[in-house]
Automatic annotation (TrEMBL):
Transmembrane segment boundaries: none
Pfam families for the chain: GST_C_7, GST_N_2
Organism, scientific name: Entomortierella parvispora
Domain GST N-terminal positions: 18-109
Lineage: superkingdom: Eukaryota
InterPro entries tied to this protein: Glutathione-S-Trfase_C_sf, Glutathione_S-Trfase_N, GST_UstS-like_C, Thioredoxin-like_sf
SUPFAM superfamilies listed in its UniProt record: GST C-terminal domain-like, Thioredoxin-like
Listed name of the protein: GST N-terminal domain-containing protein
Amino acid sequence: MATSSKPMEPLSFYDILMRPPVASTCCSPNPWKARFALNFKNMDYTTTWVALPDVAKVRSSLGVDACRKFADGEDFYTLPVLIDSNTGAKVGDSFDIAVYLQSQYPTAGSGHLFPPQTLDFVYQLETPLLVPLSTEREGKYEEYARFNTNVDAAFTAHVSICAFKLPFDPATEEASKAQFVQRASAYGLTSFDQFEVKGEAREKVKESLRLMLGDLGKLYLRDPSGPFLLGQQASYADLIVGGWLRMMKVTLPENEWEEVSSWHGGLFGRLYDGLEKFMEVK
């Protein structure tokens, strides 16, 4: 816990660079979970924007190990990373960043990121994914860790309708697309154009997404005062879902985002709107 009377230095946060203006286009779900947590805790921080092809190099240069691996055992270097020069901490996983902020700065900002609640949403993947998911972990806040893994699985299973419209930074767009194709080569993809999902195939993914959100939405119906799982009190569980909603808001065509946000009585549209107070991009 921070107790020194010395003025705090701003925390350093590393996020993935997208097309300018980056405050409108940044949309990577895991960095957004961490950014939400930083804003929830009202932390003073600065962002370093990292070009997608440079993520592995930058993370390694910071001395932060990869926290996930591909199915073949290769390290998966990704962001976010948080560095706190006040304590010397370097944290390289969105969930661990939230746990760190709650532990180190328990009274800051809008309260407790992990208030007790039951988060019994389970999603079973039917097909393998291009990137590894966050893993469940034992210890503090296991209920939230399980929820994080299941929400990641549920949204990643439907992210195919988002990938083609990612707002890549023009300076590194071709290299970024090539990286996506390389990751998908084991599944037979040879061109980024093949990431586009159209017609009947797209409608099928959208219907599956609607059904998944219906199952997830059952947790939000427990407290009808909303828009959060605990009614008027936001928690890290809402920020987890919000990170994925942010990606969809940025990457889906406007009419499809309006469709998604109106499903199930507008439940997830209200959640997104309720999280806007934590959406500042510093």
